[in-house]
């Protein structure tokens, strides 16, 4: 069922295609207007429709005065006679109900102190006493009409409008002290509360005396929304604010040009009010020519478009979240709009305000597409696009760190599927001892329950990058060079990722974690980085030189069948060393990044041996300082690798005496394979970051190699005892 007024939406919607931030914002304004049901008061022309803000009187009306008192205080003036004096002034104090709101022609000015755009003025939310209400009523006559010279735009309407005499008469009354005293006396008598009030005027007019009369031919009492000249004054004041916004009260930025939103020729403004605070003369990086009075030439926006931007501000804000000290907007839209898409878009944004969304754990972008897909159909969801922008607010100085106008979830979904395959269809992970690494529960990117949708949600929220990239934000949040933000936006856009830069970032994060966590190896981060690296390779997003080609090759798919004893040993009676060797070979041969690059495989195997020796030192010899502490990844160099290998070989032989079933050396499967591929590091064609990452990965593998081999043995035994239990 449609939630929008289709006629209102068609009246205000920007032209297709939706190709800019301004058009997205204007689209949201049209959605907000179509959803509000706000009508032009008193049958006034459409020229005033967007200027009214009746919704701003929410909380100032009452349909049950016994429960809640809300007042409209009107200065009643009979203008049908030849003269008007203080004696002709009256004050009415009535309860304000929702049926009267449209007639008031209210247009809110919410920034700072002062009167509203309309002669109708809203009081304080905290309530107003008689003295304050008196000030409001006098301002309607004196200040708003320009009687005191503070509202020149309205003063010009009084001079040029064919019915300007109405405002001129109000000016005269506003300057009359007797009138002011009469208003004060009447209010002291008739208003004794301290509640929310709305102050306005109510004029008795003869329609035939006006060039632009209200509806009907009979004389009667009219509120401002029914009187054209008062609406014209309201519009003039608002237009003046549009022209002087961010420039100063004595300088205007307006001219004749084509509106950048609608393309229509007419009066345009430069530095108009903007919900994102991007387009001001202080932020000229967005538009190089944005300079004070001439800014309308570089950033021409018509009054209607400017008002739509303001109308849609609440929908824009609904799509805002914070991440790493930044304000991040994920604004959904369709390139081509129609009534069905408008409904789907509005309902999706509206779903962000529900408790179901708050409890779902979904990020806004994921929720928005999910809402369209679940309420409409997948085909429509595929057409959904997002304008994504990250802002840093430094004490009012707005800086745009990232801006991507055409994001879809196609790229993140592709990565999500690839990540799911890495976790469940390759030799990287597993719970049965066959995968290189065990899943980590409560560590979302690498839990056994992680699926493609979880990864998509993590990508759009920034967590997928945050979990692997170094923390560069500091106390004040992310800067322009923040790697987590860079990776997040690359993943959103589907751009290629330089594998060298990725590995550098991985190693920097490992170094940070070592420093922050008492030099403990961050194994969960390393496993997460490895899963991410293989997922990006599987999604074909990595790029680099010839020496990274194997690294960019996706890992092989692995059967989920449990290995048998015959698979592991020719005699069907595998030893622990046989199982470890089988697992190591399966892991290496399952990915070209290791199998097809002897140098990288060497760095990995040295790390594996460091991890295995370290585990033995901790568990069997109760040593507090292990070889991992001696040779941590962040301090490993090619020169050190030359010295660490012989030391590890020696320790492995010495430690073999600690185990009954060990042979000449404790870890022969590693040393045999390393000897087959080992070249002197001076001949390696790898960057230092490449070496350090795969060395760290090897340590992570090696520390649990024996335990994982035991798990596989147990799994095989259980499978052979009861085949049905293994399914």
TrEMBL record:
Transmembrane segments: none
Biased composition (Basic and acidic residues): 558-570
InterPro entries attached to this UniProt entry: CRISPR-assoc_prot_Cas8b, CRISPR-assoc_prot_Cas8b/Csh1_C
Superkingdom of origin: Archaea
Chain intervals for the UniProt region annotation (Disordered): 545-570
One Pfam match: Cas_TM1802
Protein name: Type I-B CRISPR-associated protein Cas8b/Csh1
């Amino acid at each position: 069922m449609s939630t929008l007024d289709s006629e209102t939406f068609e009246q205000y919607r920007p032209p297709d295609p939706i190709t800019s931030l301004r058009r997205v914002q204007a689209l949201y304004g049209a959605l907000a207007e179509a959803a509000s049901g706000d009508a032009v008061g008193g049958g006034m022309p459409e020229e005033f429709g967007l200027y009214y803000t009746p919704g701003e009187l929410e909380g100032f009306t009452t349909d049950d005065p016994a429960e809640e008192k809300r007042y409209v205080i009107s200065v009643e003036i009979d203008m049908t006679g030849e003269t008007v004096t203080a004696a002709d002034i009256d004050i009415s104090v009535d309860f304000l109900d929702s049926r009267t709101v449209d007639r008031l022609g209210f247009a809110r000015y919410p920034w700072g102190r002062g009167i509203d755009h309309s002669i109708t003025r809203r009081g304080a939310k905290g309530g107003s006493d008689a003295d304050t209400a008196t000030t409001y009523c006098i301002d309607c006559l004196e200040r708003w009409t320009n009687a005191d010279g503070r509202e020149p735009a309205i003063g010009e309407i009084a001079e040029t409008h064919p019915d300007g005499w109405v405002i001129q008469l109000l000016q005269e009354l506003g300057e009359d002290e007797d009138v002011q005293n009469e208003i004060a006396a009447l209010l002291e008598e008739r208003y004794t509360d301290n509640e929310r009030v709305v102050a306005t005027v109510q004029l008795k007019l003869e329609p035939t005396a006006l060039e632009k009369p209200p509806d009907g031919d009979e004389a009667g009492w009219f509120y401002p929304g029914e009187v054209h000249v008062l609406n014209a004054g309201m519009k003039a004041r608002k237009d003046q604010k549009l022209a002087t916004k961010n420039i100063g009260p004595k300088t205007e930025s307006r001219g004749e040009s084509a509106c950048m939103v609608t393309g229509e020729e007419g009066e345009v403004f430069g530095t108009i009010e903007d919900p994102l605070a991007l387009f001001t003369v202080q932020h000229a990086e967005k538009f190089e020519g944005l300079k004070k009075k001439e800014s309308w030439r570089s950033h021409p926006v018509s009054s209607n478009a400017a008002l739509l931007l303001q109308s849609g501000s609440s929908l824009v804000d609904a799509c805002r979240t914070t991440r790493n000290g930044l304000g991040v907007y994920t604004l959904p839209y369709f390139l081509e709009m129609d009534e069905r898409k408008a409904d789907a878009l509005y309902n999706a944004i509206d779903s962000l305000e529900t408790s179901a969304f708050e409890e779902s754990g979904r990020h806004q972008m994921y929720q928005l597409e999910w809402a369209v897909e679940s309420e409409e159909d997948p085909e429509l969801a595929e057409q959904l696009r997002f304008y994504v922008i990250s802002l840093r607010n430094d004490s009012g100085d707005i800086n745009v760190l990232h801006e991507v106008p055409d994001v879809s979830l196609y790229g993140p979904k592709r990565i999500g599927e690839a990540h799911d395959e890495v976790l469940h269809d390759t030799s990287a992970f597993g719970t049965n001892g066959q995968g290189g690494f065990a899943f980590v529960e409560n560590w979302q990117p690498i839990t056994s329950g992680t699926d493609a949708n979880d990864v998509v949600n993590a990508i759009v929220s920034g967590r997928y990058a945050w979990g692997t990239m170094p923390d560069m934000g500091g106390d004040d949040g992310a800067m322009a060079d923040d790697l987590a933000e860079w990776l997040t936006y690359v993943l959103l856009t589907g751009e290629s990722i330089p594998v060298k830069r990725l590995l550098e970032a991985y190693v920097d994060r490992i170094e940070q974690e070592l420093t922050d966590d008492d030099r403990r190896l961050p194994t969960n981060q390393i496993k997460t980085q490895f899963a991410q690296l293989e997922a990006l390779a599987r999604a074909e997003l990595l790029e680099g030189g010839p020496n990274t080609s194997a690294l960019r090759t996706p890992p092989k798919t692995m059967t989920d069948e449990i290995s048998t004893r015959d698979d592991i040993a020719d005699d069907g009676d595998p030893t622990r060393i046989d199982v470890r060797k089988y697992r190591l070979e399966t892991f290496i041969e399952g990915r070209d990044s290791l199998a097809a690059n002897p140098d990288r495989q060497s760095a990995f195997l040295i790390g594996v041996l460091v991890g295995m020796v370290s585990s033995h030192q901790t568990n069997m010899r109760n040593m507090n300082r292990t070889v991992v502490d001696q040779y941590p990844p962040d301090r490993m160099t090619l020169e050190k690798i030359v010295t660490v290998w012989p030391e590890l070989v020696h320790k492995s032989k010495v430690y073999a005496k600690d185990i009954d079933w060990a042979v000449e050396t404790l870890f022969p499967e590693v040393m045999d394979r390393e000897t087959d591929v080992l070249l002197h590091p001076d001949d390696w064609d790898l960057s230092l970051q490449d070496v350090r990452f795969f060395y760290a990965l090897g340590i992570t593998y090696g520390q649990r190699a024996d335990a994982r081999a035991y798990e596989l043995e147990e799994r095989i035994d259980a499978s052979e005892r009861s085949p049905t239990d293994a399914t």
